[in-house]
Recover the amino acids of this structure.
């Protein structure tokens, strides 16, 4: 770090933002070089909560390692678990009952809404409006409650298992999802009143943190960050898994490339998720919620890669198997890691207040980045 | 492009490339020294346009190491997996972070956890661990009596 | 910037701000929308599937269903469960392995539910308690089978 | 001796007012924010949480006051005193009720404009002396911000002065005996009022202009390093400042302690006179305080360049033109 | 109470502040600790000096303010007599504000009001 001072010009200020800072969601540590209010360089220092989940997973069986992935991107733990389960199923070559597939997709979309709602509140808080954060939690709380009823946990679900889902749906599930849908639809207008149409908010977001389509691809961005730059990258559309191929889903694209575009993309994505839920909730096929699998799972020697679309983007699981009870090597391709790497590109030359807005618009979850 | 067409295109690019049967995607095994030039071709040659490096990692085998690059094209939607074998003693390979910017972080992570040196990387430092950390944690022979809990 | 856009800017800004104020003003005056729950006085009912801690139910005769097969111990990703078995002579006069102590490390448990799923005899289940904070870490190490308890009849 | 006793009583009264206002305003802020955020807010200490701020004060009293290493200790300790003195001095010309005024100075509004600019000095001192980068940035920001917004605040005060023809606060109130300026003065007074409210929100470092302590960027801005009682003093001074600027707003636009009168409706006016003048004063002031709190709990924060744009490209030109309009209204006698 | 109130107020402010600080000094046993004395920067040691040369952007606004604030002071005496002077006041202020406005326009054109 000492040599960095030598590289700076007179009048530059090096400031640490994070790990213990009120605006970094989690414990992101950014070392930024400032000139007055202008950001000259942003350098993320990662690893503050690195737990080496990849190394841990090497000593866990194929049933066990899934629980750890809930703790990576804790806001889309369902979808992370889904990706892992898909990867193991790929190796086992089991057929998943349709009921389980529908339940998985439903849970995934509910998780996406819950995650985006939290992001919405957190972004508003980053740019200084604190009230929306509490309003966001009202909706998120409903979702957590109804997921808790079926899965038994509110955050780290561990509900998806190789072969299906751990339990069948709770009898109240459908009714409560309907309640949520009608409630959410009545509240989404308030979101626009409080934040989306607010002139101060629009001014804080428009033209801030621009990233072009080419750069977004080169930086490996995915999810809403890439789609806001016009990169079509929705795994649910491009490489449909489970029953995503059969539902009506529109990929939300925007070519703004700035924070406001990312905001709009996520807001529209919530509507899309809602429409997927509405399509499926009354058509859950009856049947088993889980395929028969062996007590001890062994993946044949080889390599398996599966990817799913989490709330933050493309989550990939790469398993190298030696045919043993535990994987030889697991690599998690986390969306936040690549998205974060673009932050220097986005924030250079902007104000320090913009940097906070950019961080919010990237929707970073630090355990997902540090793993 | 289909897997077969990719195979012919890649053979034309790099005759030494060997193919492994991937389950889903075409797996190409190359020599580490060929990687940089090959990567540039993959990225910029019309018809291939592998512009999206969505996964970069390393696998530590008992006798050697494999760098694994998952590449896809947002134009043609075809995917290829490139693998390069490295020595376990002092592994090194050319960086590709000037071709795919995302590689800068991913290569730092691999350096951090596996100790693979990336030639010409602009900023090859530890990313996750502290700067004074000893050893490469994701290698199979890594032992850390302090931080690892044996269950 | 013409004078017209200058003023229309001002008006649209003020209008959007007033709309936001109307929304917060609505909540300020409508107290029935408040969602705060008064925690220690009011404890919301937890769903029956909520995963709070692993318990081993015993019936009225102080019998449990655990055969000591260690399926849960193997299923646990964190080494939360340690099963100590003993040799026992059953009614038929045959020597048989049986449960001696079922040690459960609550401090290591992540409530992943894998042990419950793995149990062939449904001997353990998840309880809804969640207020686990204690002053001494050792008090989180629990023995689940009660003293003097034995295996229920007919469970193999 | 009697004079000395008078001074002591006046001083004690001011200290008491300070303390009580601080407690009430902090509680009010927390309750307002809670209801807007569909929460209950403090409700454990005392009836409906009324004693919460008292408990917080006791907590702050029991905290160790830290001075960071390398800080300029003298200036660091001086800053909260400057903040308090600047705020306390502003109490002098404020009439809390009919005839209840410490000093009926004949240049009251000028005095207020002059003394209120002391606040920026305390913030700059605190930020500079802390040896902390966040503090320094926050102080610099608020320096640029507060001095800018003083202009439009001053111009909107001048608008009322043009109408009344006096700088004395008691004269300004007296001129509103037959109706408050906000009702008598047509559109220009409304523009002046809106400008005033925006400008004083910015001058007191309140959201959406709280850049000096933007917690998502600079953790706590200029008072990052302050803890214990020194922090409490800053906090107190901030809230009393809000009270005072709202009191000024009430005096200029809503007639201070003057009851609500309509022209020559004798009966109605007499009924209104039965309500004590202090109730009128505090009612109006607290209404304005509520509006400022309402802003805070609704809006996102502006960015520094947008903040200065708002002042120099919108508020200042508009209030300059507005002064012309007001002069026209005053000369033509268009006000009621 | 007259001008003496200023002295009373200053003394009471000092007494109040000093009293509060001293009271907390008496109540709290200080437990000094080198980590407590660190300047807060998110739990990371500060890199470089805090007191460095600072961006000129902030001071620019202070300078412009100075010009305008002095002009503002001139407005106060004018405002008091404006109603008596009637049309003369309007003409006078029109000229005055026009010049001021030109100054603002000049500053704007020069880019002094643009944040750098």
């Amino acid at each position: 770090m000492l040599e960095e001072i030598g590289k700076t010009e007179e009048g530059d200020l090096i400031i640490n933002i994070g790990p213990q800072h009120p605006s970094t969601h989690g414990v992101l540590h950014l070392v930024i070089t400032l000139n007055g209010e202008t950001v000259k360089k942003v350098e993320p220092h990662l690893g503050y909560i690195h737990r080496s989940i990849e190394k841990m997973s090497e000593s866990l069986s194929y049933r066990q390692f899934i629980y750890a992935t809930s703790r990576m991107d804790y806001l889309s733990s369902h979808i992370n678990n889904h990706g892992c389960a898909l990867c193991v199923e790929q190796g086992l070559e089991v057929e998943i009952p349709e009921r389980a597939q529908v339940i998985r997709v439903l849970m995934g979309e509910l998780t996406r809404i819950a995650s985006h709602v939290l992001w919405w509140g957190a972004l508003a808080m980053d740019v200084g409006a604190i009230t929306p954060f509490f309003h966001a939690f009202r909706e998120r709380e409903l979702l957590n409650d109804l997921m808790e009823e079926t899965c038994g946990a509110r955050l780290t679900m561990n509900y998806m298992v190789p072969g299906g889902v751990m339990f069948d749906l709770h009898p109240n599930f459908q009714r409560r999802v309907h309640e949520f849908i009608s409630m959410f639809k009545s509240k989404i207008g308030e979101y626009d009143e409080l934040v989306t149409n607010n002139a101060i908010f629009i001014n804080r977001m428009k033209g801030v943190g621009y990233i072009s389509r080419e750069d977004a691809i080169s930086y490996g961005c995915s999810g809403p960050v890439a789609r806001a730059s016009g990169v079509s990258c929705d795994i649910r559309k491009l490489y449909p898994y489970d029953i995503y191929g059969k539902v009506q889903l529109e990929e939300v694209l925007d070519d703004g490339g700035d924070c406001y575009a990312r905001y709009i993309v996520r807001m529209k994505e919530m509507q899309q998720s809602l429409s997927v839920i509405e399509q499926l909730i009354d058509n859950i096929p009856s049947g088993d919620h889980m395929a028969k699998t062996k007590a001890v799972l062994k993946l044949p020697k080889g390599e398996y890669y599966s990817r799913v679309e989490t709330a933050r983007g493309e989550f990939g699981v790469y398993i190298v198997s030696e045919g043993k009870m535990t994987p030889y090597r697991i690599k998690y391709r986390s969306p936040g890691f690549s998205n974060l790497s673009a932050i220097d590109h986005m924030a250079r030359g902007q104000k320090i207040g913009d940097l906070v807005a950019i961080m919010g618009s990237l929707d970073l979850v630090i355990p997902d980045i540090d793993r | 492009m289909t897997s077969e067409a990719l195979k012919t295109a890649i053979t034309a690019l790099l005759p030494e490339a060997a193919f492994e049967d991937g389950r889903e995607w075409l797996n190409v095994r190359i020599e580490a020294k060929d990687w940089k030039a090959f990567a540039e071709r993959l990225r910029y040659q019309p018809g291939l346009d592998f512009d999206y490096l969505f996964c970069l990692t390393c696998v530590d085998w008992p006798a050697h190491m494999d760098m694994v690059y998952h590449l896809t094209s947002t134009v043609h939607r075809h995917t290829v997996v490139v693998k390069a074998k490295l020595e376990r003693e002092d592994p090194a390979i050319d960086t590709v972070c000037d071709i795919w910017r995302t590689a800068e972080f991913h290569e730092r992570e691999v350096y951090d956890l596996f100790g693979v040196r990336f030639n010409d990387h602009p900023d090859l430092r530890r990313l996750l661990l502290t700067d004074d950390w000893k050893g490469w944690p994701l290698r199979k022979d890594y032992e850390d009596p302090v931080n690892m809990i044996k269950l | 910037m013409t004078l017209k856009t200058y003023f229309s800017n001002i008006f649209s800004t003020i209008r959007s701000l007033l709309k936001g104020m109307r929304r917060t003003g609505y909540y300020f005056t409508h107290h029935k929308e408040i969602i705060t729950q008064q925690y220690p006085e009011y404890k919301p009912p937890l769903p029956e599937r909520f995963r709070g801690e692993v318990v081993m139910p015993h019936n009225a005769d102080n019998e449990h269903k655990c055969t000591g097969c260690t399926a849960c111990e193997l299923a646990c990703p964190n080494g939360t469960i340690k099963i100590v078995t003993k040799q026992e002579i059953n009614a038929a006069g045959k020597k048989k392995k049986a449960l001696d102590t079922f040690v459960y490390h609550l401090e290591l448990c992540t409530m992943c539910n894998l042990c419950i799923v793995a149990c062939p005899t449904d001997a353990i289940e998840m309880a809804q308690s969640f207020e686990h904070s204690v002053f001494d870490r050792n008090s989180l190490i629990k023995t689940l089978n009660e003293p003097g308890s034995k295996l229920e009849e007919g469970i193999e | 001796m009697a004079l000395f006793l008078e001074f002591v009583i006046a001083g004690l009264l001011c200290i008491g007012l300070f303390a009580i206002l601080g407690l009430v305003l902090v509680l009010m802020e927390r309750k307002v924010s809670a209801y807007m955020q569909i929460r209950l807010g403090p409700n454990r200490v005392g009836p409906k949480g009324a004693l919460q701020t008292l408990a917080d004060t006791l907590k702050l009293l029991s905290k160790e006051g830290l001075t960071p290493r390398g800080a300029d200790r003298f200036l660091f300790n001086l800053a909260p005193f400057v903040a308090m003195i600047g705020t306390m001095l502003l109490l002098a010309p404020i009439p809390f009720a009919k005839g209840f005024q410490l000093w009926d100075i004949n240049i009251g509004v000028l005095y207020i404009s002059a003394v209120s600019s002391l606040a920026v000095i305390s913030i700059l001192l605190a930020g500079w002396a802390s040896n902390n980068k966040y503090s320094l940035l926050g102080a610099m920001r608020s320096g640029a911000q507060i001095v800018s917004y003083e202009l439009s605040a001053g111009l909107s005060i001048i608008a009322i002065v043009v109408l009344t023809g006096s700088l004395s606060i008691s004269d300004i109130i007296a001129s509103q005996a037959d109706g408050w300026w906000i009702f008598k003065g047509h559109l220009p007074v409304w523009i002046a009022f809106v400008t005033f409210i925006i400008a004083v929100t910015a001058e007191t470092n309140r959201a959406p202009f709280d850049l000096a302590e933007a917690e998502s960027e600079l953790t706590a801005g200029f008072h990052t390093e302050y803890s214990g009682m020194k922090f409490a003093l800053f906090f107190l001074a901030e809230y009393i400042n809000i009270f005072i600027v709202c009191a000024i707003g009430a005096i200029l636009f809503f007639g201070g302690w003057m009851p609500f009168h309509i022209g020559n409706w004798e009966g109605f006016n007499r009924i209104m006179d039965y309500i004590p003048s202090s109730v009128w004063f505090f009612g109006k002031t607290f209404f304005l305080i509520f509006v400022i709190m309402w802003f805070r709990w609704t809006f996102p924060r502006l960015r520094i360049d947008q903040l200065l744009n708002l002042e120099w490209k919108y508020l200042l030109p508009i209030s300059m033109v507005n002064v012309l309009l007001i002069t026209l209204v005053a000369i033509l006698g268009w006000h009621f | 109470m007259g001008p003496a109130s200023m002295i009373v107020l200053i003394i009471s402010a000092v007494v109040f502040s000093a009293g509060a600080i001293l009271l907390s000094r008496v109540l709290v046993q200080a437990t000094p600790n080198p980590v407590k004395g660190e300047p807060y920067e998110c739990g990371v040691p500060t890199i470089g000096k805090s007191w460095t040369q600072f961006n000129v952007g902030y001071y620019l606004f202070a300078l412009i303010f100075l010009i305008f604030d002095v002009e503002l002071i001139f407005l106060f005496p004018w405002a008091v007599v404006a109603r008596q002077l009637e049309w003369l006041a309007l003409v006078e202020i029109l000229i005055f504000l026009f010049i001021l406005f030109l100054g603002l326009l000049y500053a704007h054109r020069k880019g002094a009001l643009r944040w750098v």
